[in-house]
Input
Amino acid sequence: MILQISNLNKQYSNGVIALSDVSLTIGNGMFGLLGPNGAGKSSLMRTLATLQEADSGTAMLDDIDVLNNKEAVRKVLGYLPQEFGVYPRTSAADLMEHLALLKGFGNRSERREMVNNLLVKANLWEHRKKSVSSYSGGMRQRFGIAQCLIGSPKLVIVDEPTAGLDPGERNRFYNILSEIGENIIVILSTHIVQDVKELCTHMAIMDKGKVLFHGNTDDALEQIRDKVWERKVTKAELAGFQGEYNIISSKLVGGNPLIHAFSDTEPGNGFVKAEENLEDVFFAKINELV
Amino acid sequence: MWKFIRYEWKLWLKSPMLWIFLLINTLLVMGAVSSDNVTIGGGVGSVNKNAPYVVEFYYGVMSLICLLMTTAFMNSSANRDFTNGMYQFIFTSPIKKRDYYFGKFIGASTIAIIPLLGVSIGSLIGPFMPWAQPERYGAVVWNGHLQGLICFGIPNTLIAAVLLYVLAITFRSNIVSFIGAMLLLVLYGVSAGFTRDIEKEWLANLLDPFGFRPESIMAKYMTVDEKNAHGVSLGGALLINRIIWLVISALILTLVYFKFSFTLKNQKIKKEKEKKDDEVIQTNEPKDHAYTIIHRFSFSALWYLIRFETKAIIKNPTFIIIVVIGLINLIVSLTSFTGRYGTDQYPVTYDVIGTIQGSFYLFLIGIITFYSGVLVWKERDMKINEIQDSTPVQTAMLFVSKLIAMVFSIALILGLTIIIGVITQSLFGYYRFQLDVYIKSLLVLDLLSFSFLVVIALFFHYLINNRYIAYFAFVAFIILNQFIWSALKISTNMVKFGATPSVVYSDMNGFGPFVPSLVWFNIYWFVFSVIVGFLIYSFVLRGQETGLRHRLGQSKYILVKNKLVIGLCVIVFILCGSFVYYNTKVLNKYDSEKELENKQVDYEKQYKKYEKLVQPRFYKYNYNIDIMPYDRSVVATVEAWARNISTTPVTELHFTLPTIPDSVKILIRGSKLKLNDKRLHYRIYTLEKPLQLNDSVLITFNVSKMTRGFENEVSFTQLTQNGTFFNNIDIIPTFGYNKGYEIGDKNKRVKLKLPKRLRMPKLNENDLASRANTYISTDADWVEVNTTISTTPDQIAIAPGSLIRSWKANGRNYFNYRLDQKSLDFYSFISARYLVARKKWKDIDLEVYYIKEHEYNVPNMLLSLEKSLEYYTANFGKYYHRQCRIIEFPRYSGFAQVAMSPRMILTRCFMWLRMRWDTSTGRTRYAVPVCRGQK
Output
C-alpha cells in the first residue's frame, strides 16, 4: 500500500497555519514523523485519521480518497491518538469488545476471540478484567495499541505514543509496534529522535507545518556527514560560542555543556568531529542549516 | 481574610452571570407584579400586587428559585482553584486556612444575595409598566422589602450557601452540589406533606429549610387589609425556624472548617484482590481466517450499543443518587397518602399514578436535562472520542443508540415507580393493581412525552455544541414552550412542542373520550421528533472540525443523502398534521381563551340591555332524549311550556342558546325569527300575538350534539362512553339575557373596561326583581318534568323522577321517568353501565347506582340514606319525593350535585373510595345530605 499525500494545507480559524503544502509518499513499514511540539504532526495525523478537514490538497491511500471517502478509510484504519481516555468502570476486555463492535465485528464469539488475541499480544491478558482507568501509563499505551490493531488495519497511525513512558515500557511498546509494521503502513509521530532511530527506515521532519526532510534515515544522516563537530565548553563560554558558530544543540554532560556545531569545514578551536546522528539532522533541519 | 472576600467580590461583580441572574429575577418579579399572565408561586388574589405581604412572599419563592443560582456561585467559588489547577500554588503559599475558608464563603455568599434584590427592583418598577392597572397597587411599604430580606432572602441564601459550599469544598464535584440543592428541595417537599395535617404543623415548621411553611401557616388567617399593610413579621414559628436553620448551618460550616485541610486528600488506591487467572489463554497464534466484518446496519450491534449506553447511564452513581432522592420523595408522598379531610381513601391506581407524576416528574425532567448532556459529551469527557470517531461505525448508530438508551433509562425508572406504586397499594391492603393503567399512563403516554423532551435536549446539545449554552437553551426552551403560546393567544396543541390534550383517567370510563386525540397528537409529535432526529443526526459532530461552515456543509450532505427517508417523514408529518388540523380546526372549532373572553364581553355589551326584559317562565317539560354514548352524541326533542306570569304583555321571546349542541332548532307557533346572533348564541323571536297575563306558549327545541373526529382538548366530557352526564341547561336554551355568561373576575372586568358588578344583590326586601328568582334559574320556578330517554342496550339511563316504565325497542333501552312532585328547574340526564343497589324505606326507593370496582361502601350508603331520612324527616320535615338516589359519575368534574331533584350525583372519591365508615350509625363527619323537596 502507498499513502500519497500531496500539497496538503490547513489553517486554523485562529490563524495558525498547521499544514503548509505538505507532500509525502509513505509505503509499507514504519514511518517516523519527527518534529518539535506544535510542528503540525498531530494535525497531519488527525487529517489522515479522518478527524479533521484539510483546506486544500489530497491524500490517497492506494485508490481511497482519504479526505473525501472517510468511511472507506475508517474501515482499514487503526488510530491511537496522542491523548486518550477511557470510560470509567469499564474493564479492558469490555472496552476492547465495545471498540471491536464499533469497528464492525458483529459476530460475538469471533469478536471475543480476536479481542483476547490482541490482549495477549499486548501483554494485558492478566489485567483484562481491570478497569482501564486504573492502568499505569505503559499499560494504557499498550491497551491503546491493542485497540488500534482491532480488525487488522492497513493503516496504523500512532500519535506520540511513548511520551511519558519509562524506558522499559518504551521498549515493550516498540516491540509490539515493530512486529506489526512489516506489511502495513505505520505512521509514528514523535518528538523523540530516539524513537525514529530505533524503529523507522523512513522518516520526515516537520516544523511549523512544513516538511523539512523526507526520505530514509540513511539519506538523512548522509546530509550532515562530516559536518557536525562537538566540543565541551564551560557555561560562561557558551554564549560566546553561540555567537560564533552554528550551534545546533547543546546538552549538559556532567554539568557542562557539550555543544554540537554545524560546519562544512572543520571549525578548529577544540572542536572534534562528532558521530552524526538523527538528532543532529533534526536540529540542523529546524535551524535551516541544510 | 479581607483580601479573599474582596477578591471574590471583585471577580463576581465583573462576571456577567451575576447580573444576568439579577436581570432574570427582576424581570420575573416585574412581570408578576405588573401582569396577571405571570405568576410566581401562585396568584396573589385580591391583595395589592405590591403589598408588603406579596413582596415578602416573592422573596420567599424567589429564594427557592435562586437555589440553583446560589449553587452556581458557591460551587464556582469553592472549586475555582481546583478547576483552574491553581490549588497547588495557593495551598503551598503562606496563607491562613481560616482566611481562605471563611473569606471565600463570605465573599461568595454575600454575592449570592444580590440576584434576590431583583424582587425589590422588580416590584418597585412593576407598577410603572404601561400595561399595569393603577388600582391594583398600594403605596410602597418598605417594611415588606425589609421583612422579605430578613425572613427569607438573607437567611435562605446563607443556609443554602453553607450546605453547597461545604459540599463543594469537600467533594469538589458539581454533581454532589447539584444533589445537595435537590436535597434541600426534598426537605421542603417533605414538609409540605405535614402542613396538610394540622397536628403535624409544628413538624412542617421545623423541617422546611426555607421557612416557607411557618410563613404560610402564620399567614393563613391574615385578611386582605392586613396583607396590604404589613408582611409576616419575624416571630413565633418563623423566628424559631430561622434560628434553628441558621444555627445548624453555622455548626456545619464550623465543623467542616476543622476538617478542611490544605493538604490534598490521599487518593484512594484500591487494592484489587489478586485473582488467579484460571482461564486458559485460548490461543497465542492468531487465526488465519478473516473475521466477519459488518459495515452495514445491524440490529444486534445497535442493540449492543443501546445496552452499552444504557448501562453507562444507570450505573453512574449520580444517576442512582438522583433517582434515589426522587424515590424517597415519592415514597414520602405515598405514605402520607390520605384522602381529604383526614379520612383514608383506597389507593386506587390512578391516584397512585397521580402521586408518582406529582412527586417524581420534576426529578425526571432534571435527569433528562442533565443526562442528555452527559450522554452527548461522554466520549469527549472521557477523551475517547478520537478513537471512536475514527472507527467505521455509522454516525447514525452512535446517535440513535444514545437517544434510545436515554428513553430506555427513563422507562426503567418509570418501571421502578410502578413497582413502588404496587407495593404501596398492597401495603394499604388494596389489591386491585391495574397494571394496564400504570403501563398506559406512565410507560406509554408519559414516556412518549419524555421522549419528545429527550429529542429536543439532544437537539440542542448536538446543534449548539457547547454544553452550558445547550443546557441553558434547553431549559429556556421548556419554559418558553410552556407559556409563550398562551401569551400569544395560540391554544392549539399543534404548535406547542410535544403538547397532547390533557387527560383524566377515570375508573368508570377509562381513557374514554381522550383516546382519539391522544393517539393522533402523539403520532403527530412522534413523526415530528423523527424529523428532528434526522436534523440532529446531520449535526452530530465527528472529528475535530467544529467550524460552522464545515458543520453546515456536513449537515447538508447528510440531509441530501437521506432525502428519501426524510422526505417520506415530512410527507407523513404533513399528512398527519393535516388530519389533526382537519379534526381540531375544521370538524371541531374551539375558541382561544381570548376569543372566548371577547365573546363574553360582546355578549354583555350587546344584550345586557335585555336583562330586565319581561319573559314568560317555564313550568312544564317533555324531554325526548336519545343518547348514543359510544358515539358521544345526543339528540333531543324537548317540548317546553312557558307562561307569562306578569301583567306586561310579552311580544318577543329572547333566547340565550347553550353552547354545547351543534344544532338548536326552536319552533314556536305564530312567531318570526327577528334576530339570530350565531356568534353570541342569542336569538329573538317576535310573536304575532303577544302573550298576556297567564297566556301559555309551547316551544319545541330540537337539539343535537354529534361528536365528530377529535378535538384539540376534549371540551365536552359530559358526553362520554360510560358515564354520560349532562344537565338540562347544557342542552336547552334559556329565556333572555343570562348573567351567568358575564366575566365574573373583578380584575379582568376592570382590565376590559366593564362596569363593576356585585357578586350578589344587596340584601333589600324591596328588591323584588332579585327576589323573583331562586338561586337556580331566572326563567322558571317549579316545573314538571316528563322524560323519555334511550340509550344503548348495555346501559341504564336516568332522568329525574320515578321510573314509570322501561322497554326495549330498536335494539335500545328506553326509560320513561316522571317527577312526582314539582321541582326546581335544574336536573341532569345520565347514562352508564351501572349496577344498582336498592332498598325500600317506608315508601321511598333508596337507590345507589355504582360500578363494580367501587362497590366498597354501597351498603353503607344505603344505610346512611335510611338513617338520614329517618332523622331528617323526624326533625326537619317531610321528604316529598319517592326516590332517593346516589349516582356515581366519572371524575371529570370535581363536584357533587346534591339535592337537585331527588338524587345525589357524586363523583368518585367523596364516598366511593373511603376506607373507614362508621357502620354503627351509617354516618361519618359528613353524612349524606338528603334532598330537599318542594315546599
